[in-house]
Write the structure tokens for this entry.
Amino acid sequence: MCGIVGYIGSKEIKNELIEGLRELEYRGYDSAGIAVMQEGNIKAFKAVGKLQNLKEKTKNFKTIGPGVGIGHTRWATHGKPTELNAHPHMGKYSYVVHNGIIENYREIKSELEKDGVQFLSQTDTEVIVHLFEKEAANAKDIKELYDAFKRTIDRLDGAYAVLLITQKAPDTIFFARKGSPMIIGRNPGGEIYFASSDAPLIGKAEEVAYMEDGTVGYATPDTIYSEPKPLAFVPLSGDKLRAQKGGFRFFMEKEIYEQYHVISDTMIGRVLDKDIAFEELSENFLEGISRIKICACGTSYHAALTSSYLFERQAKMPVNVEIASEFRYKDPLLDTDTLFIVISQSGETADTLEALKMAKSAGLKTLAICNVDNSSIVRLADTSILTRAGIEKGVASTKAFATQVMVLWMLSLFFAKRTKAIAPETVEGETSFMHQVPRVLKDALKVHEKCKRLSKRYLHGHGFFFIGRDIFYPLALEGALKLKEISYLHAEGYPAGEMKHGPIALADAELFTVALMPKTILYDKTKSNVEELSARDSTILSISPEMFELADDFILTHPHTHPMLEFFEMMVVEQLLAMEIAIRLGNDVDMPRNLAKSVTVE
Ligand code: F6R
């Protein structure tokens, strides 16, 4: 994973670039670099290691007046983390920064070498700048330069977010994006920013456009031109303080509150008006697939388990879900008609990565559902679907889970359509429910005050049971995990119908039952299970659109006509409740004891 930034404007360009890179440093810190162009002269600086080294190196460099610049913070993929391999990469009169992987770079490189081009680095990126200069050799104006840039981009296979500057167009940044994120921000007066996430743009740009895959274009102080369609700018709310969690007490809280926003990003280009599409999945890739196996850990495993209900119900495909650390050592039987899916927020979880390696070496087709572009898991899998949740800083996963479940719901519909397990009208109907998810996630936040008030009653006792049926069973597991990891209270998730087979022995007034009681799935059955617990004196907190007379406490949810909408709303309730209980107990919600955000050990 790397981070890129760009700037067009009159502010101190070096500072704008380095400040942007600081927000992206989490994406990689093997090296960093900038290239700044003023009046057709380009100056570039690179430094190995953290951004601080680049800052030191450029401390005497200043720009006065308008110009353009690009910057990069690198997480090495091709070539060691050396200064020569650091971006920006230069040609004779142009510089490029790139996030992603150019899969066919060897082929392009040998073609360029035959033309006499000398490569300075071992990176895949360097081909872009030389290819551009070859294409632009006779270009005389911006139109011809842009055509040369487009021809260059057309040649690239793989994932990329690219920014390119050239002395032939001194006030211009050329940009392209496929598979790797890129956002453009603008201010009145022709000031323009580019970045790999919106964090560097907060407090800098008034409006931003989240570029869709396949976008190519160029920007000058006077114009932003893009294909295949104009960029859709929206106001960028928040300021730097808020980006640093300011308005919220914890990153976890901020991340719960931004779920309705990021889930729209997850859906862009995939949930269409009346259809569902995944350009990540070609027909060729899916040929011969008749079953699915999913491997993941923790919260990602809960998302996987949720999807097993959806795949079987909608797509009529057999699905098997496994905890990655178990799967690895059970000598699993693997068949090549199986699509092997791994789910991971970080893309670095050791057990999930190893499970993926096993599936690959058994010859299975592999798909990663992941939040971190260019992570180890994304790079290893045959193909990947990025969840687009943005950086998740809270150790307890919230928005990553929401976006994983959304991708899996979309995927189950995609397969259902592909296998013709459902009629086209059903596809259309499902997508109309999907379009309601952002609103549901937003409305769900209204229970926050209620969760805050209720939390004071749930600070002791000898444990919690979260119970639910069907997809609300994995949601119960997730609710219990959220609570235990940040509150350190004992909590278990259970299928509601399973309580009587043992766990009900624990029931008394000090046992708290959080009952997920959706109206759209098995309401009466769940209700009977909760009644059984209530009869044994368990304290009941019901989460339901219906008042449940035996509940000691209740959180009323909105009525919905689709189980997934109830699912997403109850997910928010669980997250808020766990967070409020943990806060009341005085815990550091963002950094709970004994845990780490990325589990790279087995
Ligand atoms: C819980 C949580 C963990 C992760 C698990 C897998 O809130 O975040 O259970 O879900 O460690 O991590 P990823 O998804 O990065 O593979």
